[in-house]
DUF2164 domain-containing protein (Methylosinus trichosporium), 86 residues
Amino acid sequence: MAIEIPKESTKEAVLSIRRYFEENMDNEIGNLAAEGLLRFLVEEIGPIIYNKAVADVQSRLQARVAELDVEIHEDEFGYWRNRRRR
């Protein structure tokens, strides 16, 4: 599954990459090179981040589903038990 970044986010990411290079690498990088680097990173590393996020969501959902039993459980055969309480 290809990870696609919206155009506006791509523009912001390119600006961020350019700024990073200027401030940390003492080197300037153009828009084309920054966008190429972004595409490479998204294709190469993006799936790692995506898969981790999916696994985290699955784990949280499984925990929530396990809690459902406690929250909505109804005791069976409660007629006689309820009559004794009266």
The chain is about 75% helix and 0% strand. The helical segments are 7-24, 31-44, 46-72, 79-85. The mean pLDDT is 92. The chain has one domain: 7-85.
